[in-house]
Input
Amino acid sequence: MSTPARKPISGMTAFIVVWIGQIVSILATQMTQFAITIWAFQETGSATALGLVQVFFITPFLLISPVAGVLIDRHNRKLMMMLSDLGAGAATILLLTLQAADALAVWHLYLASAIMGVFNAFQWPAYSASISLMVPKQQLGRANGLMSLMEMGPGVLAPLLAGALLPVIGLLGILAIDVITFVFAVLALAIVFVPQPPVTEAGREGRGNLLKEAAYGFRYIFSRPSLLGLQLVFLFGNLFAGLAITVTAPMILSRTGNSEIAFGAVQTVGAIGGIVGGVLLSVWGGFKRRVHGVLLGHVLTGLLGATLMGLGQGVVVWAAASFLGALLIPTINGSNQAIWQSKVAPDVQGRVFAARRLIAWATQPITPVIAGLLADQALEPAMRADTWLSQTFGGLVGAGPGAGMALMMILAGAAISAVGAFGYLIRPVRDAEDILPDHSVSIRAPEAAPAIAGASSAATD
Output
């Protein structure tokens, strides 16, 4: 006698299950990043060394992204996400093994970051493209709010947990927790149904060999000035934000005598801001005209985030800047994500989203190096000596270690705000939602999974 067929978990419930698996994994990963940041700065005392970790992550990420986008559109998106988690877990296992053998060196972080970069190239476009079919269009703003919450929320607990656990279990124990949570994330994906998109006209147009399909994502964007304009906003916004982000940790550590507590407190308060922003977006759904979330968000986060962070000379102001800057990030990213998920045909979103990310992050491989070199070789020495720069800006940022990096943050914040303001002057960007039509693909429900007599039923896609 056969067991009745059971439908796999689908729709918004499936999204929540995957979301829970990812948020647990990200919490552990951010604990690892916090512990590694402290370890690497204590080992080197160099902003450039920390910046190179970002370079070794982002460079392979961007290089592999076009191919990753093609594979995501060609193959099962759920499988792509699972392989991404497993690959990133393997990099963490490498660090775990080296630390257990007391052989971990800074260059090993570069290798592990490169491996993570390759596999993360699959994760984001596969997940983003899947959401547009798992969740109704009217719920995309809220779903993307939860996504922002997933990205920002673990940052509240990660520094606190890592700071508390490091003296007890050490870096080795933190890495072990990270590995376990990768397994949890994969299991969460295994029990849900992730829809595959139906073929659209755009999908048929983009068919071809690997090279042609990889190039199609760029052709799709470049043939639509509104999509290209939105990504150029993020290209230049990310350029200046990257300068500020690179020097945040070394600036705070330099100005507090390598205080893990101060650095952790600022990170935690920033993560709380991200959580509040994600919750607000999840409840509110964002601006009716989502482009305001993108452009106005850039204007405000530049002023209230990076610029205020540079002006501060103590934990209270740094924490306030971290909170306010992070508060706006979910609205910026969620609004932009909802526009793309609504406007781009689902069966080409893998390629288009991969190309989109490459455009937005094109400067990221060099930004950390530029920021590190400017800080270590130019601004920091100039602000510590009796120079024109220290005489002109010393009243704003003070003197001593970290002052040069603070000045860089002020200038970067002003530039981020200028990018958002300039976007309002460009009609294809300002009116993107009116110019671009919505796609008309509806959500597809899963079929009931067939059950085998005498065995538990298993969900199939």
Summary: The chain has one domain: 11-197+217-435.
